[in-house]
Amino acid sequence: MLAEPRHLEAIARSHERCQALGLSRVDRPDHARLVRSDLAAARERNLRLHLHAAPLMEILLEQIMATQSMVLLTDAQGTVLHSVGHDSFLQRASRVALAPGANWSESSKGTNAIGTALIHEAPTVVHAGEHYMHANGFLTCSAAPILDPRGNLLGVLDVSGSTTPTTCTPWGW
Predict the structure, then answer these.
(1) What pTM does this model have?
(2) CA torsion angle for 137, 42, 84, 131 (degrees, to 10)?
(3) In the chain, where are the structural domains located?
């Protein structure tokens, strides 16, 4: 399946932004996470978002459980507030800081579905080598921005999984 020209252009523009920021494709990404008190404060600031999203995240996880993936909720800056997922993938994901307290903005992690969805305020898919940083190339991620009724960006809902799952899924990843 060939990618749409719009998608390829969005990925190329993201890579250009990452290069302009001085990010390296081969260096290990920053895996720093917020300290517990700062994560608690971020969650408190986004309490209503979390309360509304958490039940939907559980329902979504049930629907994708066979894919051995995870569901993440971020704030408008790309900080992961909450995650749920398949235990085996959660362990692998934590090695690249795909966990609460980590920031997945483009300026932090390069081209990725969360960061790119935040910039474009549109649903975004980033598959394997489309990630700017090679360390994240084992991921396939789909993210959608969450907007309030006035169109203000509140955060992102993301589904991330391995590009090489152990079971076949309807989506092929």
Answers:
(1) 0.89
(2) -10
(3) 7-20+31-162
